Structures are given as structure tokens and as C-alpha cells.
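Data availability (excerpt). The following record was deposited with the supplementary files.
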Amino acid sequence: MSADKKIKAIKKETEHSSLIVRWVIIVALTIVVSFTIFSIVIYSTVSQQSISQQKETSQKVVTNLDSRLNTIDSELQIANVVPALSPSTRDVLKSGANSVIRKPKDVSSAFSDDLLSSVTNPDVLVAVYNKHNEIVFSNGMGTPKLKKFKADTKFQKQTVKGKQILVTYSKVISSRSGKVTGYIVVLNKMTYYNKLMHNLLIWMLVISVAAIIIFTIIAFLVVRDVVDPINQISAVAREVNNDPNSEVRIQDLHRHDELEELAESFNSMLDRMQRYIVQQKEFVSDVSHELRTPVAVIEGHLNMLKRWGKEDPEILDESIDASIQEADRMKHLIQEMLDLTRAEQINVQYPNKTAVVSDILRRVTGDMQMVHPDFNVQLDMEDLPEETKIQIYQGHFEQLLVILIDNGIKYSTDLKQINVSAGLTQDKVRIIVQDFGEGISQEDQDKIFNRFYRVDKARTREKGGNGLGLSIAQKLVTSYHGEISVKSVLGQGSQFIMEFPVISKKEALRLEKLDQKQVHGDRNDTQM
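Predicted structure:
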């Protein structure tokens, strides 16, 4: 990496914002907004209910006064207002209408008077005005001012020295003449309301701040718990990206959730990628080795012919035959390599193909018997229902059988017989290809499906094998969700066992319809 690229990478990493920071900020803002809205709603609700109670208190005072003053027909005056008050109220009035009302000696009788209870409330200031805005009565603890108003009763909330007060204006209308005779003004200091709302505001601020801090810390811990595995995955990905051969993996997260599943899938992907890298190296090495030999043989014969061999008919024929043989081997090798590559793309090329097992078994065993008349190829399908179907392209199924039967023929010794049997095992079709040849050692049984692996390279070369047949077979079987295995005893022969899931008639019909749609789609694409 050049110096400029390193600088850009460092700059980019510096500009990278942490996912934890962003998530915590979002969570914190969400909590702040939520608690703000919640606090405003609660504060407004309590305020409205408390104001309603205060209005009821003020209205009760107005109602008590009005019930005694609306019986007066003429304009309100001190002379007619004071007599209209209740006896208990008159008793406590000492020096006219503007005197301070004190509690009477007889407390029980005083508090039985609603009006007296109202005007002696230290939180309530009462004033009665005549039509000329002159005070004719007050409870002596202050005189609320009269302001013009149109309705019969008006409530007005005011702020005085940072505190809320409620002023109620009401007209006194004579019950006999129906005319306005004066005005009642009640000022409610709302001491309880102001104290309640002040305490509520403080507690809400304290609770909101505490909740925001606590939930932000919880959010940080939760988000960090989620992001830490992501950071581990990212670190492993960067290291593997820098060194594809690195064997570093994500440690067990002990989470039992989607992140642990992601980490396990990521590790599996890295393991698979590692295997592909190893296989690629082995493949390139093996192919290079396999192609080098026939090319060297052909080159040697051509050089010999060029120097002196073309003058000798025997040498010429021998060189031409050897070159053709090696070229034929190269052709088979290339074809098998192409088959192996195609076997890795089955999900794309043949996703909906189906095959009737019994039909293909009969055809392939018959063809192999005809090609190798010196062998006895026997077929046993007693345990296999006639219409049993599996999800596989029939050409690939035929190729599998040919590979295994041909492999058995190559390694047969004195007893030239191949047994092919098929049957149902629970919900799977089991197909066994058995030979009675050399057999395979336990050590080699674990390797025979590897690419280019040959048990006896010298003898296999004589028989024309490249060591790719069983690799192709394994790839085909696994690509169609099947399994392939081998059982063998040295000197007694081998059994190659394939198992495929059986598909129901309904599933077979569905796959056939999908295959027809795919075929028509491919034809339309070709015509276009």
C-alpha cells in the first residue's frame, strides 16, 4: 500500500463515527423527548385539575355572596350590603365593611356559615363594588381591583411575583328587577396550587434527569453489548482481508442469539474460504503436474522425430501413437475438470430437475453391460418402488452411475462382476455399487474423494484414470442434497453407497411445472 493510500485509510478511520455513540445519542434524545412530552402532559393535567378546584373554591365564594346580595333591588351600598350578610358574618364585622374579619368566639357556629368560611379563608380576598366602582365590602385582607368585563362571570389567571393567582369577576343581578346592582371580585392566591405545581416541577425535573442518566447508561451498556461482537467480526474480517491465509476466527460469544449465529456463520464461511484456497492451490499444483507429463511426452516425441525419428517408420508410428494417447489423456482430463466445475453450479443450472430412479438404473447398467461384455453387471431393485423419484438432473444421475461402475471395472481382479442394488430406507433412496476387486485401505478411504487422488498412481495411469471421477461424483451427490460413502476391504472389493431424499408425487409435479417455466423462459431469452 502506498503512502497516500495509508494516509487516506487512516483519515477515513478517524472520520468513522462509532456506532455506540450514535445509538446512545439517538436513545438519549428519544428518552429526553419522551420524558419531556410525558412531563408536559402530566404537569398540564395536574395544573388543569388544580385550577378547576381553585375555580370551584372561588365560584363558591361568589355564589355565597351573590345568594345574599341578589335580593337587594337597588344599587349596592354599605347600608344594604352589611345587613344582607349572614348573622355570623355581621357579628364578626367590627368597624364597618372595610374592617378585617376575625374568627368569632363561637367557632362551631361561625364555621356553620358558608359565607363566613369563605371570607375568612386567608387565601381568598373578597371585594364588593357598586355600579360606580366604589367598594362597599371587603374582607379586610386586601382589596382586589375591579376591571371591566362583559360576561356575567369571568375567571382570569394572572402571574404576580412569579406566582399564579386567580381573579374572579361576577355581576350581582337583582333577582326581582333583573338589573345589575354591583360587582363581586374574588382574588384567590392559590397558595396550595402554587406550592403543588412548584414541588411537582422540581420532582419532575429530578426524576427526568435521573431517568435520562440511568436509561442512557443502560442504553450504552446494551448497545455496547451488541456492538462489541460486531467489532470482533469486523476486526477478524480486516485481518483475513489483509492475510487470506490467516487462521484467526471469532471467539465463542456465549450469547445464544442472532449475533452468535452470525459469528458462527462467519467462521464457517472463513473455514470454507480457507478450504477453497487450499483446494485451489492443490488444484493448480495437481493440474500443472498432470498436464506437464503428457505435454513433456508429446514434446519429447516431437523433438525426437524432428532430429532423426521421422526417418524410421517404427519410431515414427510409436511416437505418433504415444502422442495421440497423451493428447487423449489431456482431453479427458480437461473434460473432467469442466465436469467438476459444472458440478459446483447445479443450483443455478438444474434447480428443478427430477428423475425416475428405476428407469435410469436399467438404462445405465444395460449400457455398461454392452460396453463391457466380459463383465457381469447385475441389477437388483426388489426393494425399490417403480415410480420412485429424486430431485436430480437425469444426465448427472447417469454420470454418477457410470463413474462408480467404471471405477469398479477398473479395479476388478479375477471376479469380473459388478452388483448394482437400489432400495428405500425410510425417506431416502439407497443405491449401492459393489465390485470384487482390489479394495481400498482405511487410510485411502478418507482420501479417495479428493481431487487427483489415486490409490495406485502407476496402475491408474495405465488404466487411463486422472483421479477426478470420485471427486466429481461426490460434488454431484452433495449438490443434490445427497450423501456418498465407501465401505471396502483390501483384496475383497468395495461398496460405494449413495443416498438421495425421495420426493413425493406432489413435490415432483411442482418441480416439473417450475422446470417447464424455466425452459420456456430460457427459450424466450434465446429468441430475443
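Summary of structural features: The domain at 346-527 is CATH 3.30.565.10 (Heat Shock Protein 90).
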